[in-house]
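Researcher: Sequence of Dimodular nonribosomal peptide synthetase follows. Predict its structure.
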Amino acid sequence: MALLAVLKAGATYVPMDPAHPEDRLAYTTEDAGLTTVLTDRAGFPGGGTARVLSLEELAEHAPERCDGPPPSETGADDPAYVIYTSGSTGRPKGVVVPHVNVLSLMAATIDDFGLNEDDTWTLFHSSAFDFSVWEIWGCLLTGGRLVVVPYWVSRSPEDFHRLLRKERVSVLSQTPSAFAHLVEVERDGAEAAPVRLVVFGGEGLDPRMLLPWFDRHPETRCRVVNMYGITETTVHVTAQTVTRAEALSGSKSVGHALPGWSVRVADPEGRTLPAGVAGEIYVGGAGVAAHYLNRPELTEQRFLADPRTGEREYRSGDMGRLLPDGRLEHLGRLDSQVKLRGFRIELDEIRSVLLDDPRVTAAAVVLNRTDPDDAATAQLDAYVVMDGDDTASVRQRASGFLPEYMVPSTVTALDRMPLTTNGKLDTRRLPAPAQPAPAAPAAVPRPESRQVHR
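Model: Prediction complete. Tokens:
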């Protein structure tokens, strides 16, 4: 309701997650130059000259009737929202997105996805995560019913699955990491959720994780769509309907650009590359954000002019390649490469090999150092959610597909992957790789882990 009120008043909303550290909340308030903060968080930290109002206080003083919102001169090109995303400097940066971008996103998807007033959506994600833009306005602008998921329900796959059934949710938006937990709930025998459309975003999808879902949700009854997107390009850029055949093949395609959007792949000098050649993804068209707030130099570096057409485009920092039919393959972040003993390694390649193992349902790979100051102590550590706990055979199988220097030093089995508040994999909460258990006495297992192989 607060977001609607802000927009009806002709203002711009800047969402903040109450769970974020006080320093981040104060920084965002000051950097955005906020004049008013609406919150239900007790003891909101000060920042700049903003007036802090509690939602409870506003409700107490609200008039009994209202004749409608005040006259507004807000135009389509005026900012609708500013969402802060992580920055390489250690401080988040605000992305300014106009009203017209959101309307263009809805216009590009409403017919293809069959969105209408009969749909029930969930608001699963924090409003400070841009996936919420799709959930909130995708629902309300198409006349649907929006179910706000309580935080504690979003953290429990079992409770969330019950909510999907109780509320008869038809449109579900998820990150792959969060959805993997729902798949496990249904594999354990829960009644199938009544969802007709699943939209993935926020992180890369390995479609092989969907095979158990397709067993209970035929493609004729539930459409699964993988969407690639970036905060700076208004949530979504491409769409790929995922079929059982694609899941079996492990396809990395994220589909064609949405109507009104454009995608090209370029070399480090910005020159467009031909189909089949990997490079950096550039996004143009209707979704490109206005700029970074108060960051003119960074805006100039990332928001550029397409040398072919002159239209504005965003340099994503993501790696991909175009297929001959114009679909885009997303190959991960350019900065997801690591260097180990002189070798450049793509962590997503190792993760993909681990997920090829039919026993593994989720995987993560990180580069760790046993001594932070000594590069010689660096090693690759893998984490898997799997049937059983034979991590030694998982590592042995991977060694048959990867060169020696890419084989993880450890493979640790987890009950489930830790997630951030946005539903993405939280690598900071991965446990330290357990040491191999000695013959005697038996080692006490670490929390969240069952077995490790080195």
